[in-house]
Amino acid sequence: MDSSAENARPTFYTVREAAQIMRCNPSTLYRAIREGAFPAVRVRTRYVVPSAAVDKLAAEASSSGGCVDIAQMAAEHRTAQEVARLTGGAR
Length: 91
What we know:
alpha+beta, three-stranded antiparallel sheet
């Protein structure tokens, strides 16, 4: 296996890995996921967190210079998905 593949960042993190990256308690992240306040993919009984969501959160916090409300980001994402569904994908 080549070293670039070994060093590639994963597409998904476990909840524990994402919580560690964000320096929060995994139970806090699980609670946010179950409440729909943080994006995740559920595979049967297991959740995985898209690395893009963690990156977006970090980028938003860096660019805004303030507190980022991930619940608001998730709500905006859900709204955009619903608009796309209702309009057949056109925005």
